[in-house]
Amino acid sequence: MSTVRESGSAVQQHTVQTPPRFISTGTSLPPAATVLNMASLSAWFWNERFWLPHNVTWADLADPAPGVEYPKAGHLLTALPLALGIFAVRIFFERFIAGPCANVLRIQAEVTRKAQQNPVLEKMFTSVTKCPDSRQLDGLAKQLDWEVRKIQRWFRHRRNQDKPTTRTKFCESMWRFTFYLCIFTYGFCFLWQSPWMWDTRQCWYNYPYQVLTPGLYHYYVTELAFYWSLMFSQFTDIKRKDFLIMFVHHLATVTLVSFSYVINMARVGTLVLCLHDSSDVLLEAAKLANYAKYQRLCDFLFVTFGVAFFGTRLIVYPYWVLNSTMFESWDLVGPFPSWWLFNSLLLVLQVLHIIWFYLITRIALKALMRGKVSKDVRSDIESSSEEETAKTHSHVTSAKRENGTNGHFGSQPWTQNDSNG
Questions:
Q1: Most buried among 10, 53, 178, 415, by the most CB within 10 A?
Q2: C-beta of residue 253 within 8 angstroms of C-beta of residue 230
Q3: Helix or strand or coil: residue 250?
Q4: Rounded to an integer, what distance in angstroms lies between the CA atom of residue 316 and that of residue 192?
Q5: Is the pTM of this model over 0.90?
Q6: How would you class 70 by CB atoms within 10 Å of its CB: exposed for 0-12, middle for 13-18, buried for 19 or more?
Q7: Quick one: residue 383, left, alpha or beta (phi over 0 = left, psi -120 to 50 = alpha)?
């Protein structure tokens, strides 16, 4: 250990004593200066005063006893190739498992009428708007010598081309349901044998010198890889109107999971992950029942999801998790800069829980008035235009009678359909 420190100081002295020399072009720094700048940037980012409790350094965590391992930032790189593997498994699953299940349930891909090829209208559709107003329709009618009604029909057909089929949505939801069920089962079994599930103060004893067990590592990296795969798959999945919101949501989740791992708050992190996965399983199950047109089962699962969401995220999460991260850790460890940031992120998550539950309650109230779960009021609407959404609302009653179902549910975060119309 002393040899490493001595050699490091020697390198630092050598770097400082070497005068900076610039290349003749005057546009770039020499290699020595570049390395020095990168080292300064790295030292600033990984400042021990921010990341670690008082009187703890990275060197204290870098050389544990034989057979002991602490979380390191480099471990998170494993999640990237694993995310690609999960994405490949998903493609296989949707094609060879979810697809045949859809066939058994007689969920077929709807045949949509394609719009005839027209370069002028296609340019307007892709570059300007998917739902032209009356002024734009009149201009296009004069330019093409078409009737306005014919142009409206063309745009309607063109929007329907991009609209995902029920079969596609079923396969996506079945994949998510399967993953959430498996990872929740694994996480629950792992936590059942972990002392911090029964006594959350165990999350802070001897912090940050808490050993990284194989089970905790696999659980954390798999969850992180899954959310990375969700970010990747957004560019190939159903293009929803809340694409940007969901992208930010996945990015925030990846950031929070990675951040908690680096500062070795993985024990309490496993509690947060397991709580969220429990209700996500029920949400995806409700969506599957909805796509399969099992309305009563869909309604039952949705109500069960609402109860589970309320219990896990508005009762257990604040009184079990937040109480531990904010008060128990304060008594046993004490606050430090990254502690404040971590708890701030968890509090923001709690605010989102309250907003989402408010929207779930609105769906439940509409269900009570209509006798069944109404069309999803979230922003996860696969309709490709505001006009299509409005049309769906105007004909929702007749659609229910024909299909025996009420639209679909989407994945979090929950937002109002009205804001997208």
A1: 415
A2: no
A3: helix
A4: 16
A5: no
A6: middle
A7: beta
Other CB atoms within 10 Å distance of the CB of residue 180: 21
Residue 289's contacts (CB-CB under 8 Å, 6 or more residues apart) are 295, 297, 298, 301
d(C-alpha 98, C-alpha 228), whole Å: 22
Q: How far is CA 135 from CA 19, 138, 139, 140, in A?
A: 68, 5, 6, 9
Q: What are phi and psi of 100, to 5 degrees?
A: -60, -35
Q: How far apart are CA 119 and CA 291, in angstroms?
A: 35
End-to-end CA distance of the chain: 63
> Could you list the pLDDT tens digit for every one of the 421 residues in the chain?
444 344 444 444 443 333 344 344 445 555 777 777 888 888 899 999 999 999 899 998 988 888 889 999 999 999 999 999 999 999 999 999 999 999 999 998 776 677 888 888 888 888 888 889 999 999 998 888 899 898 888 888 888 777 778 998 899 999 999 999 999 999 999 999 999 999 999 999 999 999 999 999 999 999 999 999 998 888 877 666 667 777 887 888 899 999 999 999 999 999 999 999 999 999 999 999 999 999 899 989 998 999 999 999 999 999 999 999 999 999 999 999 999 999 999 998 999 899 889 988 888 888 777 765 544 443 343 333 334 333 433 343 333 333 333 333 333 333 333 333 3
Structure tokens that stand for 24 in this block: 């003749």
CB neighbour list of residue 26: distance below 8 Å, 6 or more residues apart: none
H-helix or E-strand spanning residue 258: helix 243-262
For CA atoms 359, 365, 369, 372, the dihedral sign is positive
Long-range contacts of 205-210 (CB under 8 A, 24+ apart): 205/332, 207/53, 207/264, 207/329, 207/332, 207/333, 208/52, 208/53, 208/56, 208/61, 208/70, 208/263, 208/264, 209/60, 209/61, 209/64, 209/70, 210/70, 210/264, 210/267
Going by C-alpha positions, the residue among 369, 360, 371 that lies closest to residue 410 is: 360
**C-alpha torsion angle, residues 288, 291, 295, 301 (rounded to 10):** 20
List Cα–Cα distances, 208 to 58, 151, 211, 334, 341, in angstroms. 11, 65, 9, 12, 16
Amino acid at the residue 339: W
Retrieve residue 182's tokens.
Answer: 């498996």
